[in-house]
Design goal:
434 Repressor (Amino-terminal Domain), 4-stranded antiparallel beta sheet
Length: 131
Protein backbone atom coordinates (compact mmCIF):
# COMPACT_ATOMS: atom_id res chain seq x y z
CA UNK A 1 0.00 0.00 0.00
CA UNK A 2 1.24 3.47 -0.83
CA UNK A 3 -0.11 6.23 1.42
CA UNK A 4 0.46 9.97 1.60
CA UNK A 5 0.28 12.12 4.73
CA UNK A 6 -0.44 15.71 3.70
CA UNK A 7 1.04 17.63 6.66
CA UNK A 8 3.77 16.88 7.50
CA UNK A 9 4.52 15.61 4.01
CA UNK A 10 5.25 11.90 4.38
CA UNK A 11 5.00 9.14 1.80
CA UNK A 12 4.62 5.65 3.20
CA UNK A 13 4.96 2.28 1.58
CA UNK A 14 3.35 -0.23 3.94
CA UNK A 15 3.62 -4.00 3.53
CA UNK A 16 2.89 -6.90 5.85
CA UNK A 17 0.36 -7.70 8.53
CA UNK A 18 -1.96 -5.28 10.35
CA UNK A 19 -1.76 -2.58 7.68
CA UNK A 20 -5.33 -1.46 8.31
CA UNK A 21 -4.65 -1.05 12.05
CA UNK A 22 -1.51 0.98 11.42
CA UNK A 23 -3.26 3.17 8.87
CA UNK A 24 -6.19 3.75 11.26
CA UNK A 25 -3.74 4.83 13.98
CA UNK A 26 -1.98 7.27 11.63
CA UNK A 27 -5.34 8.68 10.46
CA UNK A 28 -6.17 9.64 14.06
CA UNK A 29 -3.52 12.35 13.89
CA UNK A 30 -2.96 13.10 10.20
CA UNK A 31 -4.92 13.47 6.97
CA UNK A 32 -4.00 10.42 4.89
CA UNK A 33 -4.64 9.61 1.24
CA UNK A 34 -4.12 6.06 0.02
CA UNK A 35 -2.59 6.25 -3.44
CA UNK A 36 -2.38 2.53 -4.17
CA UNK A 37 -3.69 -0.54 -2.42
CA UNK A 38 -1.83 -3.47 -3.92
CA UNK A 39 -4.04 -6.03 -2.17
CA UNK A 40 -7.04 -4.80 -4.11
CA UNK A 41 -5.13 -3.88 -7.29
CA UNK A 42 -6.72 -0.44 -7.21
CA UNK A 43 -4.66 2.63 -7.94
CA UNK A 44 -5.50 6.27 -7.52
CA UNK A 45 -3.79 8.76 -9.77
CA UNK A 46 -1.93 11.33 -7.67
CA UNK A 47 -3.49 14.08 -9.82
CA UNK A 48 -6.89 13.13 -8.38
CA UNK A 49 -5.88 13.59 -4.75
CA UNK A 50 -6.61 16.64 -2.63
CA UNK A 51 -2.87 16.84 -1.92
CA UNK A 52 -2.10 17.28 -5.64
CA UNK A 53 -4.83 19.88 -6.07
CA UNK A 54 -3.44 21.87 -3.14
CA UNK A 55 0.10 21.63 -4.51
CA UNK A 56 -1.13 22.83 -7.93
CA UNK A 57 -2.83 25.80 -6.30
CA UNK A 58 0.38 26.65 -4.44
CA UNK A 59 2.46 26.28 -7.64
CA UNK A 60 0.38 28.90 -9.40
CA UNK A 61 0.41 31.19 -6.36
CA UNK A 62 4.20 30.97 -6.06
CA UNK A 63 4.75 31.63 -9.76
CA UNK A 64 2.45 34.64 -9.61
CA UNK A 65 4.14 36.10 -6.52
CA UNK A 66 7.59 35.47 -8.00
CA UNK A 67 6.68 37.11 -11.31
CA UNK A 68 5.30 40.15 -9.49
CA UNK A 69 8.47 40.50 -7.42
CA UNK A 70 10.66 40.02 -10.51
CA UNK A 71 8.70 42.83 -12.19
CA UNK A 72 9.45 45.06 -9.18
CA UNK A 73 5.80 45.63 -8.34
CA UNK A 74 3.98 45.69 -5.05
CA UNK A 75 0.62 43.94 -4.77
CA UNK A 76 -1.05 47.36 -4.80
CA UNK A 77 0.77 48.40 -7.98
CA UNK A 78 -0.13 45.14 -9.72
CA UNK A 79 -3.75 45.49 -8.61
CA UNK A 80 -3.87 49.02 -10.02
CA UNK A 81 -2.49 47.87 -13.39
CA UNK A 82 -5.10 45.09 -13.51
CA UNK A 83 -7.98 47.21 -12.25
CA UNK A 84 -8.65 44.96 -9.25
CA UNK A 85 -8.30 45.32 -5.48
CA UNK A 86 -5.00 44.64 -3.72
CA UNK A 87 -6.58 42.03 -1.46
CA UNK A 88 -7.55 40.04 -4.58
CA UNK A 89 -3.89 39.93 -5.64
CA UNK A 90 -3.03 38.76 -2.14
CA UNK A 91 -5.69 36.04 -2.32
CA UNK A 92 -4.34 34.85 -5.68
CA UNK A 93 -0.76 34.79 -4.38
CA UNK A 94 -1.76 32.86 -1.27
CA UNK A 95 -3.82 30.34 -3.21
CA UNK A 96 -7.05 31.35 -1.51
CA UNK A 97 -8.64 32.35 -4.81
CA UNK A 98 -8.42 30.78 -8.27
CA UNK A 99 -8.49 33.01 -11.31
CA UNK A 100 -9.89 32.44 -14.78
CA UNK A 101 -7.94 31.86 -17.98
CA UNK A 102 -8.79 35.43 -18.98
CA UNK A 103 -7.21 36.69 -15.74
CA UNK A 104 -4.16 34.48 -16.36
CA UNK A 105 -3.78 36.25 -19.70
CA UNK A 106 -4.04 39.67 -18.03
CA UNK A 107 -1.46 38.69 -15.39
CA UNK A 108 0.83 37.39 -18.12
CA UNK A 109 0.63 40.62 -20.11
CA UNK A 110 1.27 42.87 -17.11
CA UNK A 111 4.04 40.70 -15.62
CA UNK A 112 5.62 39.71 -18.96
CA UNK A 113 5.13 36.00 -18.26
CA UNK A 114 3.76 33.42 -20.69
CA UNK A 115 0.17 32.84 -19.67
CA UNK A 116 0.61 29.04 -19.93
CA UNK A 117 2.78 29.25 -16.82
CA UNK A 118 -0.05 30.95 -14.94
CA UNK A 119 -2.84 28.54 -15.88
CA UNK A 120 -4.17 25.86 -13.57
CA UNK A 121 -3.84 22.34 -14.86
CA UNK A 122 -4.69 18.88 -13.63
CA UNK A 123 -1.54 17.09 -14.75
CA UNK A 124 2.12 18.00 -14.30
CA UNK A 125 3.84 19.83 -17.13
CA UNK A 126 7.25 18.37 -17.90
CA UNK A 127 8.20 21.04 -20.40
CA UNK A 128 11.52 22.74 -19.98
CA UNK A 129 10.69 25.85 -21.96
CA UNK A 130 11.98 29.04 -20.44
CA UNK A 131 10.37 32.44 -20.47
Amino acid sequence: MLALVKKPHIELSIHGEHIDELLAWIKKKYEVTVLADEDRDTYLSVENTEFWKEMEKNRIANILAGARLKAGLTQAQLAEKLGIRQNMVSDYECGRRKYSEAMAKRFGEVLNVREEHLKYRSKPDNSTASE
